[in-house]
């Protein structure tokens, strides 16, 4: 297989790998989020991907990074204190000067990973901006182009084999 043929198969492998990662994380109860602001820098850079596992509030400790819902937004900040009597977390972004409003235990999505995968979140942020039908057209188009390329590639390989056999 020539280099350009291998190069053209990279998108197929990328989609396959992405699909496998998304499926595996779902099966393990892990959700993936893109870092959209610098409130947690330097721990999480803008454009990074973080992994969030559903966790009971009682298992969260001070210093953990948690993801929670606040006014229809998903936020990931570090726990500064836990008030178990009032059942709230007191959080603050590492890059923020002020502490956040108290976060009720019921708003907890889960505990965030201690690392972020750099840059991959930009794609997620871009995809989230698409409507469902735009995303479906994009994914369908990528799949169709990959299949067409494979059909063309297979045709070329068959013609080459026939020429070799004929000579």
Q: How does the SSE layout of this entry go?
A:
Elements: H1 3-27, E1 30-34, E2 49-53, E3 65-70, E4 73-83, E5 88-92, E6 103-104, E7 108-112, H2 121-128, H3 132-166
Antiparallel strand pairs: 1-2, 2-7, 3-4, 3-7, 4-5, 5-6
Strand content: 15-25%
CATH superfamily of the largest domain: Umud Fragment, subunit A
| Helix fraction by DSSP (H/I, runs of at least 4) | 40-55%
Looking at the structure, what is the overall shape? elongated
Terminal Cα span: 20 Å
Strand order of the largest sheet: 1-2-7-3-4-5-6
What's the count of strands?
7
Count helical runs.
Answer: 3
Order of helices and strands: HEEEEEEEHH
Q: Kindly name the structural category.
A: alpha+beta
What is the CATH class name of the largest domain?
Answer: Mainly Beta
Low-confidence blocks of residues: none
CATH architecture type of the largest domain:
Ribbon
Notes on the structure:
The structure is a single chain. With 167 residues, the chain is of the alpha+beta class. It has 2 domains: 3-129, Umud Fragment, subunit A; 130-160. Helix content is 41%, strand content 23%. The chain is built from 3 helices and 7 strands. It has helices spanning 3-27, 121-128, 132-166; strands at residues 30-34, 49-53, 65-70, 73-83, 88-92, 103-104, 108-112. The chain has a 7-stranded antiparallel sheet. A hairpin with a 2-residue loop joins strand 3 (65-70) and strand 4. Helix 1 (3-27) packs across helix 3 (132-166). The longest helix is centred in the C-terminal third of the chain and has 35 residues, at 132-166. It is elongated. The mean pLDDT is 87.
